[in-house]
Amino acid sequence: xADRYDPIxxxxxxxxxxxxxxxxxxxxxxxxYCRYLTGSPWDxxxxxxxxxxxxxxxxxxxxxxxxxxxxxxxxxxxxxIDVMRRKRLPIEPYEETESHVSTCRKIDPTELIEVVEMLVxxxxxxxxxxxxxxxxxxxxxxxxxxxxxxxxxSVYAVLHRARANVRRYxxxxxxxxxxxxxxxxxxxxxxxxxxMRDGDSERIIGMLEESVHNDAQPGLQEYSKQEMIDGSWxxxxxxxxxSLKTLWGRKVFVVLVETDEGPxxxxxxxxxxxxxxxxxxxxxxxCKELLFEAGKHLGVPVxxxxxxxxxxxx
Length: 314
Description:
Elements: H1 7-23, H2 27-38, H3 41-58, H4 68-86, H5 109-119, H6 125-136, H7 141-148, H8 152-169, H9 183-198, H10 201-207, E1 208-216, E2 220-222, H11 225-230, E3 240-247, E4 250-259, E5 262-274, E6 277-283, H12 288-298, E7 305-306, E8 310-311
Parallel strand pairs: 1-6
Antiparallel strand pairs: 1-2, 3-4, 4-5, 5-6, 7-8
Helix pairs in contact: 2-3, 2-4, 3-4, 4-7, 5-6, 6-8, 7-8
Protein name: Sigma-70 family RNA polymerase sigma factor
GO molecular function, one term: DNA binding
Pfam family, one: Sigma70_r4_2
C-alpha cells in the first residue's frame, strides 16, 4: 500500500508539522474569531481549516519576517469577505472619519460575543470583522486596516457604525430554530445510528456509495469506499457510544468512548445521503478546538489521547 503514496507527501507532512508548531500559540484565538465571524461553530471550523490551508500554502511566498497572529487573522478575514462577495452580499463602502474616537460607547467583549452569532445575519461582513478584531481580539486600527483592505480612517468609520448597529439590533434579532430532517433522511440516519451502536461494520459499509468522500480534515481525506476499507476503517479503536444530538443547530452523531476516567468525546460526524446511500462523511476527529467547545456544550470531557499519536493533554 505504501508504494501508492507520492514521495512528496512525507516531506509535505514534515513541513506541515513545523508549520503547526509555529501557529500553535494562535490556534484557539483564531478558531474563536472564525466562529464569531461566521456566526456558527460549524462554519467557523470550515473557515478555520481553510485559513490554515491558505496560510501553509502561501508561506513559501513570504520573504520578510511574519507576525503570525496578524497573518492568520488577515487570511481569515479576507477569506470570509471574499465568500460574502461571491454570494453577492453587500460589502458597504465607508467614508473616512477625521476623528479616531467613536461617539458610540465601547461594547463589552462578553456582551458582544453573546449576540454576535445572531448579528452576523444582519451586519455587513466588514462591520463584524472590524468589531471583533478591535473589541474582542485587541488589534489596533492600523493593524486592522491591512486585514480588511481599508484605510485606517475608514476602519474607525466602520467601527462607529458597527457599534451603533449592535445597539439597534441587540433585542431585535430572532432566535434560530433548528431545521427538521426530511422523513426519508431521518429514516436513513436512524438505520445508520443503530448500525453504529451495534458495531455492525458490514451494514455500515453496505450503506456507503462506491465514490463516498470521507472528509476528516485536517488529518485525512479518502475518496472511495475501498480507500476507507483499506485505510481508516481498520483503525476504529475501542467500542463507541453513539447518539444523535442537535448541536449548534445541526443534527450530528456524537461519538463517545470509554476511558479510565469514564466516557469521553471521541468524534463528531455528519453524513450526506443520495438515493439511500452515504455519499459524504464529515468527521471532526482531528479538530481539537471544535471538539473542546462541543465538550463544554455537551458537558462531557474530550478524549485527550487517541490514534494516530494525538496527545492533547498539554
